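Weekly modeling sync, notes
Attendees: S.R. (lead), two postdocs, one rotation student

Agenda item 3: backlog of single-chain predictions. S.R. asked that every request posted to the team notebook include the full sequence so nobody has to chase files. The rotation student volunteered to paste the first one in as an example of the format we agreed on. Action items at the bottom.

Example entry:
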Amino acid sequence: MIIRNTLVGWSSMAVNFAVALASVPIQVHYLGKTGLGVWLLLMNMWAFMLLLDLGVSQSLARHVADDLVRDDIDSLGKSVSTSLAMYSVLALAAILIYLVLAFNLDRFFNIPPDFLDSATWAMLPLCAVTVFSLPAKIFEALLFAREELYIYQSVVMTTVLARLGLIWLFLHQGWGLLGVGLSFALAGFCEFAMTGYFSLRGMHASAWLRVSWDWARARKMIIYARDALLIQLGLIARAQLPVLILGILSTPVALAYFGVAMRLTTHAVSLSTVVARAVQPKLSLLKAGDKDEDMVRLLKRSTLYASYFAGFLGLGLYFLSEPFLVLWLGEGFVKSAKVVRILVVPLVMLMSLGPSEAVLFSIKRHGFTGILNLIEIAIMGLVIFGLVQEKGDIGAAIGLGLALLLLRPWVLPWYVCRKTGVRLGEFWLQGILRAWLPLLLIAPLLGFFLHTWPVHGWFGFVAVCLGLGLLCGLVFIFVVMGPVERSFWLQKLSFF
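Predicted structure, as returned to the notebook:
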């Protein structure tokens, strides 16, 4: 089951990346830079509306898993019915917020008059899909609890591909922003219906699927959801707050430049989280078994791997983002490469600390991450507000980068080392710096190579990517890993 879920998860990630690559040129072709910027602003508001979940989905998944393990249908009914009651109230709140935003867009955001009407109507299908997505999280929780994540990921892959086709169809028919909004809504409804069908098979839902309220269960769910909400707020605000401020103070074109850059960096971050997700269950088991020394060893090893992989992605983003953007969207989006380069170091640091956040989850100290998120959001908002009117998308990138560098890289390792007993210097030397130093030596060589022989065409771009991957892979095996680490993996592989 774990292998199946992992493989399907990787496939889903690849499909999402491919669809993102295909959809942006289509939107630029039919909507232009300004239209793309307005649509990214609408998607920004939709992403912030996901916070209305208030952490209930994570809490629900945990309680449903416990109920199914105990085969306690009565308790399952309390968890589901209480969640449905919560989501009913939250859905009403979502409708009110969307209506206020949709018919006051010109008051809140800098949207050109030519796009104002279409943006207003495009908000309505986004409202509908948000409202229905809240109770549909119950179906996701059931699949997660039964370890059938592969089913959910397969459904998502199917609907994402369908959405791409609908975007092209509606834009080709001249529906503009409303067509893009309708494509998201229709694909979303299909996802909810399919997820509901697969999650409820053989479960006799009529016995427990209802709307009611249980105060004791609600208190338990709210307590667990509190910390989850802080983390969710940090993840969403980190990516979306700069876009929101750009929509208020700058132009849709600047927003388009920043949004395209964030597409690239967000996918890189999602790739790097694989290491943290992979080790988190093992870290939890080691902590539960009081095997603290083994947990510390796994923390060091996973930090080394995550840091090297993050550095490898950082090299690619810094040196290859400009030729990629030229090949992908044309010379008109070269400015997005400047945004990417500003964000490389902060995001590499963020990705390198993924295992540290996984440890905090394992020792039930993840509330600290939520507090860090809130402070970062405050710093980010203040800096971006001060820079974005003068520098536009570049100012937003500087604000996001400073927020990620000022606090997290120094406070999070200190806190993790304090809780695990690892020396802070040892954490940096044996983990992050050990991974980064060889890559810092590769960087000037790669820069000289690309300056002497610039990338032309997709064939050259792919060849450079493969060459960089091969070089970094060999350096990792023969330089970074060391004899002890290599013998560890040889012993592991010998079982196969």
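Discussion: group reviewed the output briefly. The chain has a mean pLDDT of 85.
Action items: rotation student to repeat for the remaining queue; S.R. to check formatting next week.
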